[in-house]
Amino acid sequence: MLDKDRLTHHISKQFNSELEDIRNRVLTMGGLVEHQVGEAMAALSSADQEKAEIVIRDDFKVNALEVEIDEECNRVLARRQPTASDLRLIVAVIKTITDLERIGDEAEKIARMTLKDVKLDKKHNFQIRHFGEYVQKMVHDALDAFARMDVPQAVATAKADADADNQYDSLMRELITYMMEDPRSISQILNLLWAARALERIGDHARNICEYVIYLVEGKDVRHITLEQIEQAVMQD
């Protein structure tokens, strides 16, 4: 298990600085991605095409940060040849920024739905906003768990993905029923379904980040196992 207080404690102060810089860059990228998701949802719910265009335009910033952090990680791997917890940190960062970049892509997709002039009635607007707020909180909590290397919070946030999936399934069933009852709504509802799908994928990526936190701190790969197994693996320490 990782000793959190010794994460960046090395003889080389330069190595300490490099690792801390990488962690800070990840959190900067995470903050930008959070903002992108929030702005995309705000644009969709208010039919604000100008705001949507800004989200689409700013996606390059997320992509640029992913490239910069990945290059820095590769330099550390080549120059420092890290081992143990340091190596786990670099691996976790590389995986985390990939998921963050994909969250940014999903935010861009939501923004593009707004440009298709999606008009939401009061009920559907409430439902998609509620779902969006839930998923946004998952992203925030996953990044917070990463920042504090908080395994219990990472586990709790990973568990929240099951509820996100249930919300998505419920919303999808209702929207499909609505389309069947009113064929004139098909075009609009399909766009809304794509936005809901993007939110569901964002929840999946947030869960992935939580799994990387558990790997970083505990040294255990918890991908592809049940939530119950994850909790048991953590409680064994």
Explain the overall architecture.
The chain has 237 residues and is an all-alpha fold. It has one domain (8-235): Phosphate transport system protein phou homolog 2, domain 2 (Methane Monooxygenase Hydroxylase, Chain G, domain 1), CATH 1.20.58. Helix content is 84%, strand content 0%. The chain contains seven helices and no strands. It has helices at 13-46, 49-80, 84-115, 122-148, 151-181, 186-218, 227-235. Helix 1 runs antiparallel to helix 4 (122-148) and helix 3 packs antiparallel against helix 6. The protein starts with 12 loop residues before the first helix and ends with a helix. The mean pLDDT is 89.
Number of helices: 7
Q: CATH topology, what is it called?
A: Methane Monooxygenase Hydroxylase, Chain G, domain 1
Number of domains: 1
Please write the CATH class name.
Mainly Alpha
* Low-confidence blocks of residues: none
What separation lies between the terminal Cα atoms? 8 Å
Determine Rg (CA atoms, Å).
19 Å
> What characteristic shape results from the CA principal axes?
globular
Q: What would you call the quaternary organization?
A: single chain
Structural class: mainly alpha
**Total E-strand runs:** 0
Mean pLDDT: 89
| Sheet of most strands | none
- The helix content, as a percent range, equals over 70%
What is the chain-wise order of helices and strands?
Answer: HHHHHHH
Named CATH architecture: Up-down Bundle
Strand content: under 5%
CATH H-tier superfamily: Phosphate transport system protein phou homolog 2, domain 2
